[in-house]
Design the sequence.
């Protein structure tokens, strides 16, 4: 059975090679090129994931957020229940000095990071959809 | 001298050199035309389908991501365009009955084919191929002529890898039986004339 299959496989290969390829008319290439020269050049315009306006809005929001949190006291802390210090390993003592980052900036940076991650995810999905 | 790859030509087209497309058309026109012809069964229609295929491919070139080979992508377009054409014309192909084949059958068929002259042999094979369902003609052409791997064929015809394997096996047998029915009378005719 295996030998028969091999022989049939070889036979089909020879037959298909014998059949060869068919050629279209001699002016085929010229016709296609004449048709495509009237078409728009298929250039995918470069579109950044986040537009200039988008970056300006993000920057403006960040600055406003940072400004409001540092200048005005809300009278209460929206992060009151959060105790990030519990995440610090007490026994670990760094041999170098870590510059102190104000908590407000840390939270601002954290939220900015979250926004960027979400946006990258959304934009990459949209980009994939456009390409398909 | 380095040879340009398909991707080089695509990059040139995308940067505005439309003439680079002629290199791709020249490279693939025979294969595209053969695939179209083996589905639509008529040279004029196949020419129209092939031309349509190249124009469609050009228009869609901006969406070609390069995750598959350009040829695989192009063959999928010609396959779909040809099938759409056939659907519009609602042609039905009758299926061929498959009997068991033994080794001596294959040997004698190989002999019989060598007795037929080149041109006649080519025509005979082409006619036999047209008696197979369209999908099977394309599978045989892509696998045995273009020698594409099964995975790429499954991407072109949009059937599973295992299904390609099964259908190829079945179409090999069918083609053999069709050829046997066509070639034997020619062979006997040639023999009686000698």
Sequence:
């Amino acid at each position: 059975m295996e030998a028969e299959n091999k022989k049939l496989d070889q036979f089909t290969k020879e037959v298909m090679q014998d059949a060869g390829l068919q050629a279209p008319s001699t002016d085929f290439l010229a016709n296609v090129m004449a048709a495509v020269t009237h078409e728009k050049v298929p250039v995918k315009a470069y579109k950044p994931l986040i537009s200039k306006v988008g970056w300006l809005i993000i920057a403006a929001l960040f600055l406003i957020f940072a400004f409001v949190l540092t200048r005005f006291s809300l009278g209460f802390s929206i992060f009151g229940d959060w105790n990030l210090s519990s995440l610090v390993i007490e026994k670990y003592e760094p041999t170098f000095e870590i510059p102190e980052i104000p908590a407000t900036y840390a939270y601002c940076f954290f939220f900015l990071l979250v926004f960027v991650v979400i946006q990258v995810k959304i934009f990459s999905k949209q980009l994939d959809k456009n390409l398909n | 001298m380095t040879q340009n790859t398909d991707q080089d030509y695509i990059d040139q087209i995308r940067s505005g050199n439309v003439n680079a497309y002629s290199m791709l058309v020249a490279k693939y026109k025979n294969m595209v035309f053969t695939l179209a012809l083996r589905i639509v069964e008529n040279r004029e229609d196949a020419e129209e389908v092939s031309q349509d295929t190249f124009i469609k491919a050009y228009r869609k070139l901006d969406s070609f991501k390069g995750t598959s080979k350009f040829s695989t992508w192009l063959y999928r377009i010609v396959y779909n365009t040809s099938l759409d054409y056939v659907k519009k014309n609602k042609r039905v192909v009758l299926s061929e009955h498959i009997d068991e084949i033994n080794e001596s059958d294959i040997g004698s068929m190989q002999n019989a084919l060598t007795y037929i002259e080149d041109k006649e042999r080519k025509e005979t094979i082409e006619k036999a191929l047209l008696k197979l369902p369209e999908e099977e003609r394309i599978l045989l052409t892509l696998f045995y002529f273009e020698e594409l791997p099964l995975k790429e064929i499954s991407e072109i015809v949009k059937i599973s890898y295992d299904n390609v394997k099964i259908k190829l096996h079945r179409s090999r047998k069918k083609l053999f039986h069709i050829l046997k029915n066509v070639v034997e009378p020619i062979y006997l005719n040639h023999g009686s004339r000698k």
User: Anything to note?
Assistant: The two ends of chain A are 45 Å apart (CA to CA). Chain A has a mean pLDDT of 80. The first helix of chain A runs from residue 2 to 19.
